Amino acid sequence: MNAESNETKNADSALDLLLTSKQSAVPAPMSEQARSRARLFVYFGLVLLAMLSILYALWWRAPQDFPADAYITVERGMTLGGVSILLPEKNVIHSPFWFKAWGTLLGGNRGLKAGTYYFSAPLSVVRLAWRMTYGIENRRMTRVTIPEGLSNGEIAALLQDAMPDFDRARFEKVAAKKEGYLFPDTYSFKAGSSAEEIIAEMERNFAERVLPLEAAIRDFGRSFRDVVIMASLIEGEVRTAETRRQVSGILWKRLDRGMPLQVDAVFPYIIGRNTFEITTDDLKMDSPYNTYRFAGLPLGPINNPGLDAITAAITPTPSNFMYYLTDPEGDIHYATTHAEHLVNRAKYLGK
Predict the structure, then answer these.
(1) CATH number at 70-134
(2) In whole angstroms, what is the distance from residue 54 CA to residue 297 CA?
(3) Residue 285: phi, psi to the nearest 5?
(4) DSSP code per residue over 150-181
(5) pLDDT tens, 61-108?
(6) Per-residue pLDDT tens over the stretch 132-191
(7) pTM of the full predicted structure?
(8) Could you count the other beta carbons within 10 Å of the beta carbon of residue 310?
(9) Residues of CATH 3.30.1490.480 domain(s) within the chain?
(10) Three-state DSSP class for 187?
């Protein structure tokens, strides 16, 4: 009997404990004050989120009219403040303040790196500041083929068509005394490259490509300058390797005998445009490049010759020919005497 009584008491105690724990697990109803605070917190969060969204749209995100394929040049010595004024003018950022803030935070005392920056797609103000702080230009490469025989002016026009922001006037000014030494080739230039950078690359290529001919040029016995001038005349006159060497032999002989070279290819260079019919007035032009009026080589190269023309200039074909002409079909006709040359003129040119 006592054992049963003890078991009953223990069971009642366990039941009371279970009921008590369940009652204590039920949360007390929230007070009105607590509910007000919760509503205020949610409202404040929504307002803050809306404000951040507006700030992002207006100041952080790139402008909707961000220019496609944008180029931004940071000149050496430009301040962070100066660049922050430039960027909104280019529609690259909204707020100079945020750009300055991030530029200062990321760069500290380093400031921005000078260079031309290329942006293929809009960037946030943070990424923009980061790239300019660490000098990540990411410039697109522009592939340009420069044919043999172009003058500096013609090269400038070609580059202007191929490269945005190319400074043609600057190129022509810097290259003024480098006619003949800008090697024709296929180049990959960084977008935004300066005239000086492009010219330096073309000059470097010229020196590298002509270097294997150095010994042959020296053995030929003419000055390097005269060889380049002659090569430019050959480049402008004829196209095949055989005719180039033949014409090279004729022109060097005429030069040695004090005869006018009478090269028609100089006139587009003198006049500044292609001319298909040389007039009597053209032949009388007072220009140091006029090889009809003045004997000897012209003042300088008339174009930028390729390696084949330079090679032809130092490997002339020996012959008795002293004259040549090109007919309307592009074929070359040679003559030993002036009388034979006049016959060819009448036969092939109708003159």
Answers:
(1) 3.30.1490.480
(2) 72
(3) -60, 135
(4) B-HHHHHHHHHHHSTT--HHHHHHHTTT-TT-
(5) 555 556 666 778 888 888 888 888 888 887 777 778 878 888 888 876
(6) 888 877 667 788 999 999 999 999 999 999 997 899 999 999 999 999 999 999 998 987
(7) 0.67
(8) 26
(9) 70-134
(10) strand
